[in-house]
Amino acid sequence: MKDRVDLICSIGELAGLFEKATTLENFLQTAVSIVAYHMRAAVCSVYLYDEKKNDLVLTANQGLRRESVGQVRLQLGEGITGTAVKELRPIRVGVAQLSPLWKAVPGIDEEKYKAFLAVPILRGLTRIGALVLQDPVADYFDDNDTRALQAIAAQLASVVENAKLLMTLGKHQHGETAGAQQTLETLKFIRGQPGGNGVGIGRAMIFGSLDETGKETPCKFTRRDFEHALAATEKQLEALQVGMEERLADVASLIFSAHILMIKDPKFSGAMLALIDSGQTPPSAITRIVDQYSRLFANSKNPRLREKQQDVKDLGRRLLKNLHGGADDDADFHGRILIAAEVLPSDVLRISAQKTEGLVLISGGATSHIAILARSLQLPMVITENKALLLLHEDSEVLIDGDQGTIYVSPSEEVQAQYRVLMKASREAENIADKTPDVAKTSDGVMIEIFANINLLSEIKLAKRYKASGIGLYRSEFPFIVRNSFPSEEDQFRVYRRLIDEMEGREVALRTLDIGGDKMLSYFPGENETNPFLGLRALRFSLKYREIFVQQIRALLRAGEGRGLNIMFPLVSSVDEFLEARRTAMSCAGQLAQEGVPHNSRPRIGAMIELPAAVEVVGELADEADFLSIGGNDLVQYMLAVDRTNEHIADLYIPHHPAVLRALARIARAAAEKKKTLSFCGEMATNRKMLPFLLGIGIRRISVEARQIARVHEIVAAINIDEAKEEAKRILAMGRISDVAAALRV
Ligand code: PEP
Ligand code: MG
What are the two backbone dihedrals, phi and then psi, of residue 207, each rounded to the nearest 5 degrees? Predict the structure, then answer.
């Protein structure tokens, strides 16, 4: 007698059983035995779905040949089981061999089994695998069996899914196992998302791992060697800090401060010395104390302390390298491709300062500001969701292409050769910067101003080399994002002053803080919002935290003293909000005057048009503002309600949507009517298909990433304004995305 109820209860207890099982395979083996026993079926199998290969692997079985486990693989849609999983439905047949879906798998002795019941194991619509019963008696299974097996599959699904996860985690923590190795063997080529531009090639290194510090060698080191290593490490860190301050004055303030503080702390090095004096080897003393500290940080409730784990691990690595006598100044990451589950903006600075070849970021959340930072630092970077990369052997060769978003593990000589050619071509292309004409003109001689978007002062050099007409967008949040606390008014004043002065009279639009959304400050615990892009972002943040806004405005006004000053508010949502922000700015000017502090009392104040609400009142905003600037990236995001950082809906992020195009035309018309300068910042301006439209609706100033300027010059030169106007008019009459796409050939 089949015993379905008992079976379902037993399976319910499987979760507990799982904890005792050492592997997922063991656990599933127990599960199939229980199912086969209670259902009195001759055969029970579990197939697991392998997303990467898109096939099913026989993972546990009772009744078939033992060797078939791990060997039998079925394509999705292949045989009765493959079809059940593909079509997400149970399939029951009285005599399997008579079914058109039947596929005989040679060598597993299943010919003698007639009745067949396969149910998919699903989590929502996610395929986990299949649970299959077979028996020699024809028509052995009925409707009730199907339902029972479905109930069991549903219970197994979450256990199996969690088991898969836990197994991966366990494998990760305990190093390599056969299973992990198997996953890694499939890791040859990964398509991720582009992050920072350029190509990097080097040996892999897992960011934040303690593997290197953990390496034990036969000990030949003495207390003196340790003291030398300590002194060398301190010197290197100080030199690195000085180098950073010279190269990245605006953001580098004390990036290595935590390292330096720790290395100088007698408690830290003293604990190591005490261990050495008690007979431990210097490498194990370092490892033990680093471990102790990093656990301490990891367990802290304070998020800023938790971040320090990374610093202490870096420090340990560096100390060990110095002990082995091999560390140069860039010791840690030089020539490596770092693979990181999480990085902070300050990590990116540090990584780049240490001449890292590239960064692979396993994304689990918002990463766009990390990508912007990587681009500004010219650090090749790829973002991927593939966690298996974290299991990669540390010395594997990895090539990443930050432009394409691709990762090659142990790239073949052929791939490397192709990339060498590409890298040579891109170095040559860089030389065109020096040949960029002073002004951009369309084919019929209309002048277009090309400005640069920059995030760091170090990009000014590039902007000037590409002959940018000015800075159309300075993202002032970057000095805030990468620090450990708010920069003071004085700090900010120095950064802004240097930016304005280095541009030597060319116009600079300084945007006030655009914090929030995906750009959070690690030292300022936000409101823990469910929808940060619809939350306290940009100008709203500034108006709520008035003290921060006032400090920034004061710094801006002071930096603009005796110079032209353009201040721009991001994400303006109403005329009222704009006026309130402007009143605050003007009262800061009044305050500075009272205090007798030199400043610019008549700044030009502009509004960024990035929200549908701002488009609706753009005429009134144009009346009030001294200039307007379109934030194209956000405008698309908010017009279409498509998170610009969510790669799962990237196909819905459609800049050529008729609604977006009509909004742009409306903004351009309003600015022209009110005779206000209008600039366009955002990716669309670098798009060969879209730029003619922007010029066609009357936009004459665009602002793009500095290294795109030469390319944009070329695109502009091929555009005829009269034709672009005609084409824009034609496109604006279209109501369907598909029609616009056909017209623009996107
Ligand atoms: C934009 O939104 O298009 C823009 C230029 O600003 P950011 O990318 O910094 O939001
Ligand atoms: Mg924006």
Answer: -70, 125
Cβ–ligand 1 contact at 50 (below 6 Å): no
Determine the structural domain holding residue 120 and report its residue range: 4-173
Alpha helix segments (H runs only) across 40-177: 79-86, 143-173
Domain assignment of residue 510, yes or no: yes
Same domain for 316 and 386?
yes
The overall average pLDDT reported for the chain is 86
pLDDT digits (tens, 9 = 90+) for 685-737: 999 999 999 999 999 999 999 989 999 999 999 999 999 999 999 999 999 99
Contact 455, 369 (CB under 8 A): no
- For residue 618, how many C-alpha atoms fall within 13 Å in the half-sphere facing its CB? 27
Q: Is 369 tagged catalytic?
A: yes
In CATH, what number is assigned to the domain containing residue 522? 3.20.20.60
pLDDT average, residue stretch 324-339: 74
**Furthest-apart CA pair in the chain: how many Å?**
99
Report the alpha-carbon distance of residue 451 to residue 72 in Å, rounded.
60
Q: Over the stretch 557-616, which tens digit does the pLDDT of each residue have?
A: 999 999 999 999 999 999 999 999 999 999 999 999 999 999 999 999 999 999 999 999
- Residue holding tokens 């210097």? 282
- Residue range 423-435: average pLDDT? 74
Do residues 418 and 484 share a domain? no
Predicted TM-score (pTM) above 0.70: no
Ligand 1 pocket test: which of 368, 540, 569, 610 has the largest number of ligand atoms within 8 Å of its C-beta?
610
Sequential DSSP letters for 624-682: H-SEEEEEHHHHHHHHHT--TT-GGGGGG--TT-HHHHHHHHHHHHHHHHTT-EEEEES
What one-character-per-residue DSSP string does 123-144 give?
ETTEEEEEEEEEESSTT---HH
Q: Residue 605 Cα, ligand 2 centroid: separation in angstroms? A: 17
631 CB near ligand 1 (under 6 Å): yes
Tell me if 203 sits within 8 A of 395, measured CB to CB.
yes
Domain membership flag for residue 261: yes
Radius of gyration for the alpha carbons in the chain, expressed in angstroms and rounded: 31
- Give dist(CA 702, CA 733) in Å, integer: 24
Cα separation of 248 and 254, whole Å?
11
Indicate the number of domains in the chain. Answer: 3
Q: The dihedral of CA 709, 517, 402, 379: what is its sign?
A: positive
Cβ contacts of residue 255 below 8 Å, gap of 6+? 241, 244, 346, 349, 350, 353, 482
CB of 633 within 6 A of ligand 1: the answer is: yes
